[in-house]
Amino acid sequence: MNYSSRPAGTFAIAISLVSNLLLTVLKITVGLLVGSQVLLADGIHNAGDVVASAAALSATIIARKPRDFDHPYGHGKAEVIGSAAVALIMAAAAIFIGYHSIESLSHPAAEASYLALIAAVISLVWKQWLYVYCMKQGKRLNNKSLIATAYDHLADVYASGAAVIGVGAGLIGDHFGIGFLSYGDPIAGLVVAYLILKLSYEMGREAVDVLMDKMVAPEKLDVYEQLVFSVPEVKRIDRIRAREHGHYIIIDVRVGVPAELNIQEGHDVSKKIKATIMDRHDDVEEVLVHLNPWYEDEDESFVK
Fold it and tell me: What helix, strand, coil percent values describe the chain, rounded to 5?
């Protein structure tokens, strides 16, 4: 595994951490000054994002460590743990936002503020850029923590967009005396809560799948199988499995080879299978090969 590209992921998450700190201060300060529930709730959500970004940063640093005696398969799943932590923090933020939005609906509507609208627009533009940047880097590096951070920014885009709409509706309601529009702020908060909760569920489910060693997609497994069969000595595939281990994949394969091969020849076949796959797939970290004897007159349905 080439670890030279990993600092790029660390840098991207560090930018996210600093950005979340600044936006947290901006939103909470403005939210308290003007009494905007959606902006205040979004600020609290950003405070959770600070913790999430710190968790993702720590996970990415740990995942860069090479394999050792205690972790022979590497530390790649640290990124998945970081992704799961981000999902939990996002879910907690969604519940918080939803609760306070419902509570606000039972009180007289607060007067909307242009300052809150400006803060929401700044957050929307900033978070949209962070989402695009982190997602691009995360997919390029196949960094689960960074992709989770990107989705966290996307949740903030939803929140900031809803805040812009909610505060804007409140301003229109105050100006024209339209009562129900004055509650645009807390109603927008409820929409934000739902969107963030949905996104956190999808992220959490994906993280659990990786932690539980779920098989890779069938089409990807088919590609690996074709590469194994491209090795001339391979006469049969008895079993092939592949699982994600954070930002890389580990493959286990059992194949049938001619029984008359000696130990050295069998060893060479194993190396050839491993090289054939890894030379074409940079995201494959390990290929574990088990050889079974194959006889020319055996039943083709035989599986060892």
Answer: 70, 10, 20
